[in-house]
Q: What sequence folds into this?
């Protein structure tokens, strides 16, 4: 309440929405000159009415037709002539004209075809990877699936020996044929191979396709492991 003013003498205004009088309030002390409505509901109604009025004005206002200048016409003719020249050069001697050939359209078609081809390649690669995993799980993998190459002869193998073979003391995976040369045929090495150290065996765990010779293959694998360890 303004100082020195009694309650019955407070300034008042008339609401622009409901046309009812309202008096000064403490919350309007700093903005009293700008207040036009008596309550939040009237203020909301005033805003809604203003929004609807503005929308109606926009819908009823006729669209203005842009004025084309002489410079715009000249630029349009120049672009049309440039497209005609490009169509002639790119058409192998044929002038396709402005309406029959569009460079941007042709480039977009080429890019679309290239993107489609790339998607097809990625899709085929994913299918191949899934088929390979399925074969591994179901035991239909080929004889060379999952093999690792020997680090000395580079031949793939299902059974490799992890060992050190020289002064570099690096661990290598070698096949059974190469293992005899680096260890002397002894699991712990001999005097002629001082740098040799045995570090275990690596075995291909992929389920392989087995035919009638499955038992024979298992026996050969067992004999190979025993021979590498010097047990036979």
A:
């Amino acid at each position: 309440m303004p100082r020195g003013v009694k309650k019955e003498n407070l300034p008042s205004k008339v609401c622009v929405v409901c046309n009812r009088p309202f008096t000064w309030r403490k919350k309007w002390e700093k903005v009293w000159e700008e207040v036009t409505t008596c309550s939040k509901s009237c203020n909301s109604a005033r805003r809604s009415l203003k929004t609807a009025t503005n929308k109606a004005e926009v819908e009823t206002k006729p669209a203005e037709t842009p004025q084309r200048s002489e410079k715009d016409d000249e630029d349009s003719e120049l672009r049309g002539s440039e497209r005609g020249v490009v169509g002639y050069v790119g058409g192998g001697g044929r002038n396709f004209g402005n309406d029959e050939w569009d460079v941007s359209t042709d480039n977009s078609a080429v890019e679309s075809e290239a993107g489609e081809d790339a998607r097809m390649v990625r899709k085929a690669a994913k299918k191949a990877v899934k088929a390979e995993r399925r074969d591994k799980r179901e035991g239909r993998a080929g004889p060379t699936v999952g093999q690792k190459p020997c680090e000395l002869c580079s031949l793939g193998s299902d059974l490799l020996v992890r060992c050190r073979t020289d002064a570099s003391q690096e661990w290598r995976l070698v096949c059974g044929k190469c293992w005899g040369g680096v260890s002397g045929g002894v699991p712990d090495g001999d005097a002629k191979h001082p740098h040799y150290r045995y570090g275990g065996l690596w075995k291909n765990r992929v389920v392989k396709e087995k035919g009638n010779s499955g038992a024979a293959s298992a026996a050969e694998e067992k004999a190979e492991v025993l021979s590498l360890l010097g047990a036979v």
